[in-house]
Design brief:
Blueprint (H helix, E strand, L loop, with lengths): L4 H10 L5 H17 L6 H14 L5 H17 L2 H17 L5 H14 L5 H17 L8 H29 L4 H11 L8 H14 L5 H17 L5 H16 L1 H4 L3 H13 L1 H4 L4 H20 L1 H4 L3 H11 L66 H17 L5 H13 L6 H20 L26 H7 L1 H13 L5 H18 L19 H12 L5 H16 L3 H4 L3 H12 L4 H18 L8 H19 L6 H18 L8 H11 L6 H13 L10 H11 L5 H17 L8 H11 L8 H21 L4 H17 L7 H18 L6 H10 L7 H18 L2 H12 L5 H16 L11 H7 L6 H17 L1 H14 L4 H15 L3 H7 L3 H10 L6 H17 L2 H9 L5 H13 L11 H9 L6 H18 L7 H10 L8 E5 L4 E5 L2 H17 L6 H8 L8 H18 L11 H16 L4 H19 L8 H11 L5 H10 L6
Antiparallel strand pairs: 1-2
């Protein structure tokens, strides 16, 4: 769409108006008009617009200049490249030679153009602009006649250098990769300026070089690094230039971490030497402090960007970090016993990365890992002396340690003990900002302690290591070490709570530690983990609980009160009931006070605690200590109920009050609160009419109905049932679900069921039929369960069987139709089976005879249903037969097998039902002595589905009579080679059943001598389906007969490709719950060799088996990961030699023979990340995972983005250093999908992949320290502006929930 030329010319005329407001509005309207243009602007309008806007950059009005800069962003996207070149050249000339007072305007305009210009223009505009910038940087100062003029010239020269360096940084950051011809001239010009006398110039030069180091060639980079390292080596530590050169190393590491990693062996010892040099350590001047801070911040960046390489220097880093964390020369901590301090001497404010590096230090400190303060409770940092800046060193040291813990969670075990002791010792820190950083570091250490595993440390053992654990604890896990330090932790936490300097921020930090400590120690643990004492932190309740209570009583700090209540709830929830009983009297007044407070969030949290307190007092609904707790419970109920009568309170408070009052009644409504039941029921009944509280009210009625105390809800039961039935029709999914669950509890558990009006129940049954379909399977399963419970209660509530008859006319026809759904499975199918079984058991065939029931089920088996539908019908039929317990019914079903030629659908159902009966343990030989042959005859049917059903039946009937049917089946396999696949499937059904437990396995073991040779003989079959079946049978039968593992080991090296592939596949099926997912180690060793097999088929099957092992029991191969990983990684690379073209006449088709192997490799990467993240180098992992971003397979691309999402979610802090390597591949992959999304073919699939990409990118953008990955952050900002991706990202932001407690 092109704008109206006359309108544009009129606006251009107004841009020269004498009134500045007219000029401003005309320029603003012009920018708006240009935004509407799609594609390029008419060439006849480009030149006059360009000249007008450039002229306005010199406008006397600042507002006009500002809007002109904004307009430039629109211009460069709508103009041809030549026009943009002219604009850039003119601005560059003005930047260098123009007026100093307007230079900021020119600079802003250039920055806007660089950030918004199309990438295709990059090469042309960068050539023009670099020439101008280098001219400005080389321009020398002019000598002036007077001192005043000379000072003005000095200011102008300084201003010009700063502006040129600033633009150079932006230009090289955006287009550095296409400016190879200019790299050398840029370096030759600005590199010497690193030694400039002015600190501002040196800082800008370092940043400009940082934006370039990722793109220059190795030769230039090596020269640059050599110069920087030489200066650091040779310059005296008093020299101000040293600070800049150290800072430059940090900036280089941030922008090109992997390139700098080569030089770490030179850089790290140099910086360590500077930090530990006696001259520096004894010098407490601000310059020495800033130098040490600078070194520590450089270490911090290098730990994040080069975590693997920095491991070699861990011991030295720990010494420096732990030592400087305690550097506080102006303060005496020995003055008090409890860590209280006089803040008169404490140190200053944070100003970023020293005095010379705040440009790239973006950490703000403080605790912001979960809730952001909303203003309440924020405190101003304590007044501090101006001359003490030592806190900057301590804070930098703590941040370095935090980064180390975050990036090496699984390998930090060796240092856990020392770091823990040192951090605990620094809880007394007098500077609040540093103190909160120490708390954050300690929280990270707590979380790392549950990730690190015994024996996983990758650090090399070093003699005389002061951080090495004592011999007696060397084999103790990190988690155990942290547990051993529990007394010291709790002592420090309690001491700091009591200290005079414990303001709201400090207490918030302490509560955060306490929260993580409780969650980490008291979390549910794997059965393989060490058993922890169940008492948790009970021993410290006497000291701790009073301090938490004090926090809840802070009058003004809502955040602190809320967090304290949440931590209190966690403590009560994660400890045994008997351990918590003793603290209830102490916390009750505080809880009552909190419920009565004016803050909604505090009220809600307090009533959450009340619900938990009722569970503690009477967990089993039996006798309790009435004398001690009756008063408490009565007070808690009264204060909760009081909230229900208040007006103008938030919905969340109303819901919490309903739940708290109901919790009290559900456990104490028999005696203590018996008089309160009716008034509570009335309130709950009233709340059903409120849209905000109706769902919570339903939940409360369900709790009361399900209480073992048999709370009488009969006064309101009819109203509740009526309202619940109406809620089933509402649009809210959660409301419908709650209504169904509440109705089920009332019918099944409550004594009030007999009081429900018959007409209501009739209406309910009639209404329920509407929900028996596959539109909402979860709701459908709940409705079927509800009807089942009504059926079970019919002997009590339906003496005349009116409700049961209503079911046969209203409910069952819908059930029969539902059986035909291809989606029917899982809980919905189980609920339907229970309904049929219960109905027949209750009625004993008096309302609906077995014959009628059977005929209706068979009738529902119409032709062309899905296999799952026939299976569902058969399962219901088998349940009915088992309920009837009549052999005649089995005979009737067998007759349908003989009639398979006339009706395939009925035959299929009959065969599947026979199989289900056999699986249930029925000996069907008594019903028909020739049953196996009748089933085998069904193999001749033309329908593949009938054949498969016959195969299923033939296998499962053997479960009921092994001696008869197993030899018969083996004989059939030997005689009928043409039916081998189906017969092997029958054998698989038998083996699967008997391999499920050790007891069952013994029953099939006697048949091993005939089954094993049969399987081995067919392992080399040319039929892929037969081989797959053989592999599954072999693997599962090896669980029964361990001798088979010896055969598998031998055949894994067989010359026949098919045999090797079969054996490799069998490995994954041999992992079974009954053998605890174990394999003989020699078999595993032989199997791992197949990963390097030359045949693609064998290799793929090996990859798939590796994937299963990783998912089921990764410990089998964890010791061999070093050899497995390179093979898996190489499998992600597209092998062009395996891609061939097939000529199909009118067109050619590309066939990628390596695609199945790559899919298997990426699947393994996903499993690796889930099962053994502590054993993989995430940088190397991401390096090969990137291949999936540009893979041609949509399946691989989707999986890759899903893996990146997991990486960002669970390992974000550890992969910041590698994020800058992603943008190029991400851009290529996303652009391809954007083009596909605009077309007709596979557009939806492409949009799905783009959604997955946005989810992964959004997650990665929000990982800790992500701002240190500048290329990635810049790339993400461009993604945010991409039209097709904006709604996807907006949806993700809307779904994102704020961090919880």
């Amino acid at each position: 769409m092109q704008p109206d030329p006359s309108k544009i010319r009129a606006l251009l005329k107004k841009t020269a108006h004498h009134d500045k407001d007219e000029r401003f509005m005309a320029t603003s309207d012009l920018a708006t008009e240009l935004e509407k243009v799609e594609g390029q602007l008419d060439s006849s309008l480009q030149t006059p617009i360009r000249d007008a806007i450039l002229k306005q950059l010199d406008d006397p009005s600042n507002d006009v200049q500002s809007i002109a800069c904004k307009c430039l962003c629109s211009i460069v996207q709508k103009f041809v490249c030549e026009q943009v070149e002219e604009i850039v050249d003119k601005l560059g000339s003005l930047l260098v030679n123009g007026k100093m007072e307007l230079r900021d305007i020119y600079s802003i305009a250039l920055k806007n153009i660089i950030s918004s210009v199309p990438e295709d223009f990059g090469q042309q505009i960068s050539k023009k602009l670099v020439r101008r910038l280098l001219q400005g940087l080389k321009k020398t100062k002019t000598k002036r006649d007077t001192d005043e003029e000379q000072k003005e010239e000095e200011r102008n020269h300084f201003n010009r250098l700063i502006a040129c360096l600033d633009i150079m940084k932006d230009l090289t950051a955006r287009f550095g990769f296409i400016m190879q011809e200019d790299h050398q001239s840029i370096l030759e010009t600005i590199q010497p300026m690193l030694s400039d006398v002015k600190v501002e110039i040196r800082k800008k030069v370092a940043i400009s070089l940082g934006s370039l180091v990722g793109n220059i060639n190795d030769e230039l980079f090596n020269e640059l690094m050599k110069q920087v390292i030489d200066v650091i080596k040779n310059v005296d530590f008093h020299d101000v230039k040293l600070f800049t050169f150290i800072q430059a190393v940090g900036i280089f590491a941030r922008n090109a971490g992997q390139r700098v990693s080569v030089y770490l062996k030179d850089i790290v010892p140099l910086l360590i030497q500077i930090c530990t040099d006696q001259k520096v350590t004894q010098d407490n001047t601000e310059a020495a402090i800033d130098l040490r801070e600078n070194c520590l911040q450089t270490f911090d960046v290098m730990i994040i960007q080069c975590p693997k390489q920095m491991l070699e220097h861990t011991e030295d880093l720990m010494k420096v970090g732990l030592s400087l964390m305690a550097y506080d020369p102006n303060y005496d901590y020995g003055s008090t016993d409890d860590g209280d301090t006089d803040m008169a001497d404490a140190g200053g404010d944070d100003d970023g990365f020293g005095d010379d590096g705040d440009e790239w230090a973006d950490d703000d400190g403080g605790w912001d890992n979960d809730e952001k303060a909303d203003g309440a409770g924020d405190v101003v940092l304590e007044a501090v002396a101006d001359d003490d800046t030592s806190w900057k060193v301590r804070r930098a040291a703590v941040k370095m340690l935090t980064s180390f813990i975050q990036t090496h969670k699984s390998t930090v075990q060796q240092y856990h003990l020392k770091i823990c002791e040192s951090l605990l010792g620094r809880f007394k820190e007098h500077d609040t900002t540093v103190r909160l950083d120490i708390f954050t570091a300690f929280q990270e250490l707590l979380l790392a302690s549950i990730i690190a595993e015994q024996g996983t440390s990758s650090f090399s053992t070093q003699e005389n290591n002061p951080f090495d654990m004592p011999p007696l604890v060397r084999q103790v896990s990190s988690f155990q070490l942290m547990s051993q330090k529990l007394p010291e932790m709790m002592q420090q936490i309690c001491t700091q709570f009591k200290s005079k300097t414990a303001d709201s921020k400090v207490k918030n930090g302490l509560l955060g530690i306490l929260r993580d400590l409780v969650l980490v120690r008291q979390a549910e643990r794997s059965v393989r983990c060490d058993v922890l004492p169940e008492d948790g932190i009970k021993a410290y309740f006497d000291q701790l609980i009073p301090e938490i209570i004090v926090c809840t009583q802070q009058n003004t700090d809502v955040q602190l009160k809320s967090r304290a209540l949440y931590v209190l709830y966690l403590i009560l929830q994660r400890h045994r009931n008997e351990d918590c009983l003793t603290v209830l009297p102490a916390i009750t007044p505080a809880i009552i006070q909190s419920v009565d407070a004016n803050y909604p969030r505090v009220k809600t949290r307090a009533m959450l605690v009340i619900s938990r307190m009722t569970e503690i007092v009477r967990p089993d609904y039996k006798d309790y200590d009435n004398a001690s707790h009756d008063k408490i419970i009565k007070e808690l109920f009264d204060i909760s109920f009081k909230q229900l009568s208040l007006k103008d309170i938030e919905g969340e408070v109303k819901k919490a009050a309903l739940k708290a009052a109901t919790s009290c009644l559900a456990r104490f409504g028999d005696k203590l609160l018996a008089a309160e039941i009716n008034k509570t029921l009335n309130v709950l009944n009233d709340r059903l009419a409120n849209e905000i509280t109706r769902e919570t009210s339903l939940e409360c009625f369900g709790i009361l109905a399900g209480s073992p105390l048999q709370t009488d809800i009969s006064p309101v039961v009819n109203k509740v049932v009526e309202e619940s039935a109406s809620f089933l029709r509402k649009a809210s999914s959660s409301l419908r679900t709650t209504a169904a669950e509440t109705l089920t509890l009332i019918i099944s558990k409550s004594t009030a069921v007999s009081k429900i009006n018959d007409k209501l129940l009739m209406s309910l049954i009639e209404q329920c039929q509407e929900y028996i379909d596959d539109s909402d399977l979860h709701l459908c399963s709940l409705i079927l369960t509800l009807i089942t419970e009504i059926c079970n209660q019919c002997p009590v509530i339906d003496k005349k069987s009116v409700l049961l008859k209503e079911m046969t006319t209203k409910t069952f026809p819908k059930c029969y139709k539902f059986l035909q759904s291809p989606l029917l499975q899982g809980t919905a199918l189980d609920a339907l089976k229970r309904l049929f079984s219960s109905f027949y058991s209750v009625t004993q065939g008096k309302i609906l005879s077995f014959e009628q029931f059977k005929n209706e089920l068979i009738k529902s088996a119409v032709p062309k249903l899905s296999r799952s539908s026939y299976s569902a019908i058969a399962q219901c039929l088998s349940i009915l037969i088992l309920s009837a317990d009549d052999k005649k019914s089995i005979v009737e079903i067998i007759k349908l097998v003989d009639a398979h030629s006339s009706n395939d659908a009925h035959a299929q159902v009959a065969l599947l039902a026979i199989g289900e009966l056999g699986k249930a343990g029925q000996d069907l030989s008594t019903a028909d002595g020739n049953l196996e042959n009748k089933i085998f005859n069904a193999f001749t049917c033309e329908s593949e589905s009938v054949k498969w059903a016959a195969s299923f039946a033939l296998g499962n009937i053997a479960i009921g009579n092994m001696d008869k049917y197993v030899p018969s089946l083996i004989d059939m396999i030997n005689k009928h080679a043409d039916r081998q696949y189906l017969l092997l499937n029958s054998l698989k059904e038998i083996i699967t059943h008997y391999s499920s437990t050790q007891a069952l396995a013994k029953l099939l073991l006697p048949f091993s001598e005939t089954i094993t040779p049969l399987l081995m003989t067919n392992a080399s079959s040319n039929d892929e389906g037969v081989r797959a079946m053989i592999a599954e049978c072999l693997g599962k039968f090896a669980v029964i007969d361990n001798k088979i593992f010896m055969e598998i080991e031998k055949l894994l090296s067989n010359k026949d490709v098919n045999t090797r592939a079969t054996m490799a596949t069998a490995i994954k099926y041999s992992l079974n719950k009954s053998n605890k997912y174990q394999l003989p180690q020699n078999v595993v060793a032989a199997f791992l060799k197949t990963l390097s097999d030359g045949d693609l088929l064998v290799k793929r099957q090996s990859f798939l088996s590796i994937n299963t092992i990783l998912r089921v029991n990764s410990r089998l191969i964890i010791a061999d990961l070093e050899t497995i990983l390179p093979i898996l990684y190489q499998g992600t690379v597209t092998n062009q030699e395996l891609i061939r073209e097939v000529d199909l006449g009118p067109f050619k088709h590309r066939v990628d023979d390596g695609l199945p192997l790559r899919k298997a490799a990426f699947t393994c990467l996903d499993s690796l990340l889930d099962s053994t993240p502590h054993k993989i180098d995430l940088f190397e992992f991401v390096k090969f995972l990137r291949n999936g971003l540009i893979d041609e397979s949509p399946d691989i691309q989707m999986l890759t983005y899903q893996i990146f999402y997991k990486v960002g979610t669970f390992h974000g802090a550890a992969i910041v250093g590698v994020l800058d390597t992603l943008p190029t591949d991400l851009m290529k992959g996303i652009k391809t999908k954007m083009n596909e999304a605009k077309g007709n073919k596979d557009a939806e699939r492409a949009k799905d992949i783009l959604r997955a990409a946005c989810k992964a990118l959004y997650t990665l953008r929000n990982v800790p320290n992500v701002n240190k990955a500048r290329k990635f952050v810049t790339f993400y900002s461009r993604v945010e502006k991409t039209k097709i991706l904006i709604p996807m990202l907006t949806e993700l932001k809307n779904q994102a929930k704020p961090g919880g407690q």
